[in-house]
Design brief:
Blueprint: E1 5-9, E2 23-26, H1 41-45, E3 51-55, H2 58-61, H3 71-82, E4 86-91, H4 117-133, E5 140-143, H5 168-185, E6 190-196, H6 202-216, E7 219-223, H7 232-246, E8 251-257, H8 276-292, E9 297-300, E10 306-307, E11 323-324, E12 329-333, E13 339-345, H9 347-358, E14 364-365, E15 370-373, E16 376-377, E17 382-383, E18 390-396, E19 402-408, E20 418-426, E21 432-436, E22 441-444, E23 450-454, E24 457-466, E25 470-474
Length: 482
């Protein structure tokens, strides 16, 4: 970057300054009260994301049969709305007053109400109460969380019996009842199916879709916890083809994906050589894949460092004091696993802030006449990068501004990359700047990097490329610079 001239940084925008965005973040696990949301609301709003995923907490809401206390959830929903963000709700988990075996598990995590008619009827009444209560405030309702995972789809069974685990037929039954209840309670609400944990689990999804979900859900949501972001485009294309085979128009939402910021975290992707910088790169790459695929919205997991508490047992504190470091805000922990401290931003906080400022309002994927080429490059003792791992996406705005986003998708955990790349572009504005999406730094290119080849062809020669996404912005793509 030393050959470029820095001219400023992307100005961040608060959520209330943005009307439309396809970016979100998770506010999960408040059904288990694992962090203080009051200290996080303003910091999340300052990122500029719009969609905030929260979990409904059946066991926390209905402690006496037929009596729903939404006070705790009202406080969260209203604070999110007050700051210009959009809450959406994942309907989960179990409730021990209907499913006794759920009393064993911290937060009744993963205990679906499927064993008896009483459980199913109670669940439908609960769903109807939630959707009716938040009519006009919440539009999207996700049906359960990761039902294809063993921790999240448990059964009441004898100790000498083997836990049968996830079952697409059972999930379809619950999802169909839930979707019908959502639509009956609020015809404008949308039912979101799956929150699938294993994005490659297409047999599970197809089975459930074939058993009625294909006629009922308005959107499919997926999770994809993997260090290999190059898998994401294929997942997204396959989701689209599978959904269209049932009913065109079903939306796709990425509802929960992130990475740890240190190697000693518990939960998904644990034990790997994560750092704060790798977390930031993982976030940028994956969310850009989603934006380029034109998903309805994509949500980063998560706001806070917090306990994972997915397999916690009541009365056994050590079973749920398993700390995950997925947050864009870091936290300390007290003896009960509650997130404490000042909630300090990580590099992933700033990178998400940059994405939110640039890829909002009318920004959308747009095919442009662009190709990357390998030219001689003294910077790397030979020629530009021509790796097969180069990833390039293009975007446009209604004002005619365009952008090229690119990076070298070398393996995040084992490689870094610094080199150069050249582009042939056609019909793009000669006013071009380079943005480092990690921190929002904006640079102008020296004259020797820009060649007007005539007839609308613009060549960008030996511009920097790394394993962290960068953007070439043409025209007035960047709203404000500081």
């Amino acid at each position: 970057m030393e050959r470029l001239t820095k001219v400023g940084t992307v100005k961040s925008k608060c959520a209330h300054e943005i009307k439309n965005s396809r970016l979100g973040i998770g506010f999960e696990k408040l059904d288990r009260a694992v962090f203080d949301p009051e200290k996080a609301y303003d910091k999340v709003a300052a990122i500029g994301v719009k969609w905030i995923r929260i979990q409904s907490g059946w066991a926390r809401t209905e402690k006496e049969k037929g009596v729903y206390d939404f006070a705790w959830l009202d406080d969260i929903v209203d604070n999110i709305l007050l700051r210009g963000m959009k809450p959406w709700i994942c309907l989960c988990y179990g409730n021990p007053i209907y499913s006794p075996f759920a009393s064993v598990y911290f937060g009744a995590v993963g205990c679906p109400p499927i064993a008896t008619q009483e459980e199913r009827d109670a669940w439908v009444r609960y769903v109807s109460a939630v959707v009716t209560h938040y009519r006009g405030k919440v539009e999207y309702y996700e049906i359960w969380n990761e039902p294809d995972s063993r921790y999240s789809w448990k059964h009441a069974h004898a100790e000498d019996e083997e836990e049968p685990g996830p079952n697409a037929h059972e999930y379809a039954l619950l999802a169909n009842l839930t979707a019908d209840a959502i639509h009956a309670a609020d015809p404008k609400a949308k039912a979101v199916g799956f929150a699938i944990a294993q994005a490659y689990n297409f047999t599970y999804m197809n089975t459930a879709l074939a058993e009625g979900m294909g006629d009922r859900i308005d959107a499919l949501s997926f999770h994809a916890y993997t260090a290999d972001d190059t898998l994401r485009p294929d997942y997204l294309k396959t989701f689209r083809r599978l959904l269209d085979s049932y009913r065109p128009g079903i939306e796709i939402i990425q509802s929960e994906t992130g990475a740890q910021s240190r190697s000693d975290g518990a939960g998904a992707l644990s034990g790997l050589s994560w750092t704060k910088e790798k977390q930031m790169k993982h976030q940028l790459r994956n969310m850009l894949h989603d934006l380029a695929a034109d998903v309805t919205f994509t949500s980063y997991f998560s706001t806070m460092d917090m306990i994972e508490a997915l397999r916690g047992l009541i009365g056994n504190k050590s079973s749920y004091l398993d700390y995950g470091y997925f947050g864009v805000l870091s936290a300390d922990f007290d003896e009960d696993g509650f997130s404490t401290g000042s909630y300090t931003p990580k590099p992933s906080y700033r990178s998400l802030q940059v994405l939110a400022a640039l890829f909002s309002e009318d920004c959308k994927p747009e095919p442009l006449t662009v190709r990357h080429v390998s030219l001689p490059s003294k910077r790397v003792k030979g020629h530009d990068c021509d790796d097969k791992t180069i990833c390039v996406y293009t975007f446009g705005k209604d004002n005619g501004a365009k952008a090229i986003v690119y990076w070298n998708a070398v393996p995040l955990l084992t490689h870094t990359y610094e080199g150069t790349i050249s582009f042939q572009t056609f019909g793009l504005d000669k006013n071009v700047r380079l943005v480092d999406l990690a921190d929002g730094s904006i640079y102008t290119l020296p004259n020797e990097m820009i060649k007007d080849a005539g007839h609308g062809e613009l060549q960008l020669i030996n511009v920097p490329i790394s394993d962290t996404p960068k953007m070439l912005a043409f025209g007035d793509f960047i709203d404000e610079i500081v």
